[in-house]
Structures are given as C-alpha cells and as structure tokens.
Fold this protein.
Amino acid sequence: MKRLLAAALAVTALSTFGQAYPGSRPIAIVVPFAAGGPTDRVARDLAEAMRKTMGGGAHFVVENVGGAGGTIGATKVAKAAPDGHTLLLFHIGMASTPALYRKLQYKPLEDFEYLGLVNEVPMTLIGKPQLPFTTYRDFEAYIRANASKLNLAHAGLGSASHLCGLMWQHAVKLNEAMTTVHFGGTARAMTALVGGQVDVMCDQTTNTTGQIESGRVKAFAVTTPKALSGHRLLKHYPSLQEMGLKDFNLTIWHGLYAPKGTSPAVLTQLNRAMKAALKDPAFIQKQEGLGAMVVTDGRTEPEGHKAFVAAEIVKLKPVIEAAGKFAD
Ligand code: ASP
C-alpha cells in the first residue's frame, strides 16, 4: 500500500505554486489551424479522452491559432511557459515546414518536449461537386488540360493539403501549376470547395469522409499505397499508386508536444494520460470511422515520437525539393 502511494505521488507533478498538476487551471491544446478541420477534430476528440484518463478534474480547452501552414500556432507554443498548461497538437507540418520556410521562429527538434504520436490519417483527392466526373482518370485528364485555369485550395505552406497538392502535381507532371489559394485551415477551404469557389483539394479523410458521403464534394483517389479496402466508404476510391503514380505515398500523422523545459513529472503525467486515451474505445471508434488509425507502437513514447519526426524531416526534404516548382 505504502509503495503504491509513493508511486502515485511520484507521477503527480506539482505546479508552480505547489498545487498538484494540473490543478484547477485548464490545459490548452493549441491547434495551429482553423476550428472544424481535421487537426481540430483530432485535438477535440483527444482532449475529451484525456479529460477522462487524466482524472482529478483535469480540464482541457482547444485553442485555434491558424495561419502560415501551422507555424504561427507552433511558434506560440514554443514560446509559452513550460508549465504543462499549453500544449500543441500538430501534424506532418512539424516535419515539412523546415524545408519550406527560410526562417522558422522555432526549432522543431529542440524547442519542444515530445509527448507522443496520436494517429495516422490517409488523404483524399477531392473536387468541387460541380465537376462532371466520377473516375480518377477523367479527373486527371481534365486537370492536365486545364491546370492554369484551376484553383487548388490548401492550408498554407507546409500544411498537409499543400504538401499533398504539390506532390500530386509533380507526380502527374503537370506542365503548369494550378493557382493555389491559402486558407487558415482546411475547414475554411472545404467551405469554399463545397461552394464551388475553388476546384480541387487534398485533405485528411477525417475532414473529407462526411462531405464525400453527403455528396457535397467529389472524391477521386486516396494517397495510401493501396486502396482503403477496410473502410465502408473510402474503399470505393483507388489509390494514386494504383492509378499509375509510382511510389505515391502520403500519410499524415498528428503528435502532441509541450514547450521545452516542461518538468519530467508533468510530461510523464501527460504521456500516460495520452497513451490511455489512445486505448479509449470511444476515441478509437471515432478515429477509425473517419479513416484514421490510432498509433499503438513505440511512437507513443517521447523518444519514439521524436525519432520518427527527425526521420520524417530527412525524408520529406528531397520530396519537397523535387516538387518545388509547385510549392506555392
Ligand atoms: N488539413 C489541414 C492541412 O492541410 C490542416 C487543418 O485544417 O487541420 O494541413
């Protein structure tokens, strides 16, 4: 009994004023994109699950700080007090933006504590509902012939939608780039696509599944090497590799971060609550329903998460450089 009590005390961090963390102050999860989009959705579901797994009346709020492909929100967290009350939920942009911005206000591998990877999400290539095609081949032929007249929506340089759009334009060897339209998050871009103000977007399945299902947008392909045969809706769309785009493979991931210097006890408490949340059946069911896979391997540990992001930075640099012509 005594040993159990000591162990419990060891993982209960103390806040600045000696109260048990998190105490009554909320824990803000900064989402560096607009509300209602895929990153926001993961953050809200995770916050709800972590509220349960952290116990002790922990209270989470989601704060949307969109702009510049997620780098404005990430900067805010890098400079926040390392007291466990400001966290960041960021996606692959953590690894793609170093290759796209001349100067970031933070160093991805130095200015954060890594808490763990949350999920992996395929992307879907979608178009406005007015496009008169149903097959990927017709869609590609149309884009090829009309690229300079068409708009591609994305969430800013280095965002997942941007990365996917530039990789795809490069892979199909478009002669001319589409005009890109930047939004503070793909929730807003989606509104423009549904309304027909922009023509094409590539976005996480967590944001597109509902829109495809209700017929508000048209889907043409998924970005994973193979079609998503296990998903009730997305199984109907081919993968870009199956459509002849050799080696096309893009899966988005989301991870949780704290500012550098957060105490080890607080980090341990957060990591444990996060890992328990990733086992919560309600969280898993929501993610899987939207085509996402919850991470269960060693990348849910700080070291595994950091090693993975470091490798992604190395992997994405040449991909982005090769597709650089489509980078804006
Ligand atoms: N899906 C967005 C992106 O393209 C981000 C978001 O709005 O959550 O990066």
